[in-house]
Amino acid sequence: MRVIAKRTLREFWASKPKRADAKGALEAWHHEVSQAHWRSPAEIKAQHRNASFVGDNRVIFNIAGNKYRLIVRINYRREIVYIRFVGTHADYDRVDAETI
Q: Which CATH number applies to 2-93: 3.30.2310.20, 3.10.129.10, 3.40.50.970, 2.60.120.260?
């Protein structure tokens, strides 16, 4: 899968010193997804049991022991993962995962 854009992840972990713990987890997620060839939500669920699926091909991943949330939109046919949101649970509570 092609991930667009890793810069969003880097900006998140670099934006505040207390988010530095997200770096390793987000880099590991990025590496894993970059190697994947998901063709359906079922294939994601097989790798990430805690992934949640919402409308418009959006997937919510728990990051760093569920400390952070990552929302992506996936184009399965083109194998592209678009990062739509990364944040804390409090940040996540303020967004609409289906439309972000």
A: 3.30.2310.20
